[in-house]
Amino acid sequence: MKYLLLLFLITICSCKGREEINFEIHNDSLIDYDSIVITGLGKLKFDNIKSGCKTKGVLDYSRSKTKTDGGYEIKLYSNDSIKNHDFGYYSNGIPSSTHMIITIAKDTINVKEIYDN
Questions:
Q1: Which of 29, 36, 66, 81 is the most buried (most CB within 10 A)?
Q2: Contact at 8 Å (CB) between 22 and 52?
Q3: What is the pLDDT of residues 45-70, one digit of tens each?
Q4: What pTM was computed for the model?
Q5: CB-based contact 64:17 (threshold 8 Å)
Q6: Angle at CA 89, nearest 5°, toward 82 and 56?
Q7: In 10 A of CB 2, how many CB atoms?
Q8: What is the DSSP string of 51-89?
């Protein structure tokens, strides 16, 4: 019985997982962005993303109290214009992926979601 209890506790504790999402942004457009902001389970901001550049960041959601379903939004700021795009999904405050690669093209934004254990 002790072994079953120990096995149960180990199983429960191992389900915690990482509480962060890695973002990689590729600016393949011809536009230099003043800033790029990603929201959803938290907020991640990148400053001065030039055309042709790549950058990485980590969104830590360990302090998020969100227990609902939702998605992410990316806002691209350039001069006086703002472009936004909704993407991704989380359920009960838990994201469906651990890594997102966002490619900003001339007329579209592509998001590739990756789940690593």
A1: 36
A2: no
A3: 999 999 999 999 999 888 888 888 99
A4: 0.81
A5: no
A6: 60
A7: 6
A8: TT-EEEEEEE-TT----S-EEEEEEEEETTEEEEEEEEE
Of 66, 111, 64, 59, the closest CA to residue 85 belongs to: 111
> What values do phi and psi take at 98, rounded to 5?
-110, -10
| Contact (Cβ atoms closer than 8 angstroms) between residue 98 and residue 18 | yes
Q: Which domain holds residue 29?
A: 19-114
**In this structure, is residue 24 part of a structural domain?**
yes
Q: What is the pLDDT of residues 15-33, one digit of tens each?
A: 455 689 999 999 999 999 9
Alpha carbons within 13 A on the beta-carbon side of 38: 23
> Is 105 within the bounds of a domain?
yes
